[in-house]
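My main concern about presentation is that the manuscript never shows what a single data entry looks like. Each protein is reduced to its one-letter sequence and a matching series of backbone shape codes. For the editor and my fellow referees, an illustration may be useful. For illustration, here is how one protein appears when written out as sequence plus structure tokens:
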Amino acid sequence: MSASPLVSVVAINYNFEKYVLEALESVRQQHYENIELIIIDDHSTDNSVALIKYWMSTYTGPCRLIVNEKNLGVCATLNKAFTGATGKYIAAIATDDIWLPDKTTIQVQLLESAGQDVCAVYSDAYLIREDGSPRDKRFMEIRNVKGFPQGEIFEALLTDNFIPAMSVLLKMECFKAVGKFDEQLVYEDYDMWLRLARKYKFLFSDYMSVKYRIKDKSLSTSIIWEVPNTKILLKHLDGHPLVLKKLQEIALKAYRKDQKKVFDILSATSLHDPYIRRLLLFHRWRIPTPIGLRLLPSLSS
């Protein structure tokens, strides 16, 4: 397949010595041959880098390793790797996840036959435990989305971030058109999908292309999602009614859960939505939740 377009694969590692070799092997085992592999380590403190270097000595394809001198976080680390990528298409995998062998082949074929208005293809993902054993449900089953959205998916994305990041193959030209990952954010993908979805269409592939490992202690299980999601949605407000509705839902949830950080973000903006402002006041005045919830409908009428 030497005439096939080059695919840049970014493997991002941070203290994944238990899983990194399995993840890299899943890249090696891709049936697609024209791949450049960029492995980037975000200043791991375990034995990851030594294992990566050993694995690279057995790998015959184009491959390079970048080791951050300090921990930069996922967004800055991905920007660093993406900047050096030269492929027509690009994909990223965290080195605790696993690709299935036909992922790249099938997704390149789909994008090669897609229109100019399509930026990426994604699939659902198998969920696995720390030891690699399967979980009962798949990634999209536990998200608040109906079916498998494709085409213009911006409004569908407002319901939830239902795209498994490690399943995506993206046109490099589209990534460059919308700009780099926002390094002010804790995690990278949701903001990027929203930015892309406002300009382009997405394809869904029914080939289950990845296994997503959910660990007991990880970003996905420890983060209070309302905090970064508030920052992300404020970037995409632009008078969009569904974005405002989603922010209202987050504000109500923050009031119920007493999430001060969410209100700190909202109060620092110029957003003048009456519903959100009332919730801000209820939170600031420490109005008990049962009372505030009873007052909201009458104040909103």
The mean pLDDT is 93. The two ends are 64 Å apart (CA to CA).
